Amino acid sequence: MKTTDQPILQDFHIEGIKHITPSDAFKTINNGEAVLIDVRELKEVKLESIPLDHVLNHPMSVIMDRLPYIAKDQNIILMCHSGIRSVKVAKMLIQQGYKSVASLDGGFEMWKAKGLPFESEQSTRGCGCNSAKLPNVDDKPAPYAPVKVSVKITDFKNLRMIGKK
């Protein structure tokens, strides 16, 4: 897993925490070399998520209760909205004996900005407030225009650890 000692895409950092760029994280996850743990809360994940294998949701608010379900002998990439919560969770996991932990540099926002795959339940046009103004049909979608699909949320209490046989 290719990491850096300092973040490149965000300002927030805690000494001793490794960072991984969104493109390097994407390659690592796709190759099955790491698991991505999304530490955002369930309501955030229901709105937008990453549709890849080896992506789990263990919200920061309950991650201490989920430690028995997170293998210590795997590469772990932590993700939140902007990279702040994930850095804090990375520090906690390292203190709990996890060896290979990195925070997604710039978080989910930078993942989307880099054009990497994600799913969204949010509308890509307008505010949804039913204003009288009609949308401009000449508007171009964002380069990472999300695909509207349903998000599958898994109950992790009965899930076996990835990487364990």
- Please give the CATH class: Alpha Beta
Gap between N and C termini, in Å? 22 Å
DSSP strand tally: 7
Q: Give unreliable regions as ranges.
A: 125-153
Report the order of strands and helices: EHEHEEHEHEHE
Write the layout of secondary structure elements.
Blueprint: E1 18-20, H1 22-30, E2 35-38, H2 42-47, E3 48-49, E4 55-57, H3 63-66, E5 76-79, H4 84-95, E6 101-104, H5 107-113, E7 119-120
Parallel strand pairs: 1-6, 2-4, 2-5, 5-6
Antiparallel strand pairs: 3-7
Briefly characterize the structure.
The chain is an alpha/beta fold. It has five helices and seven strands; from the N terminus they run E-H-E-H-E-E-H-E-H-E-H-E. About 18% of the residues have low confidence.
Task: Report on the architecture of this protein.
- The protein is α/β, with parallel strands linked by helices.
- The chain has helices at 22-30, 42-47, 63-66, 84-95, 107-113, and strands spanning 18-20, 35-38, 48-49, 55-57, 76-79, 101-104, 119-120.
- Helix content is 23%, strand content 13%.
- The strands form two sheets. Strands 1-6-5-2-4 form a five-stranded parallel β-sheet.
- The longest helix is centred in the middle third of the chain and has 12 residues, at 84-95.
- Residues 125-153 have low confidence and may be disordered.
Keywords:
165 residues, alpha/beta, Oxidized Rhodanese, domain 1, two-stranded antiparallel ribbon, 13% strand, globular
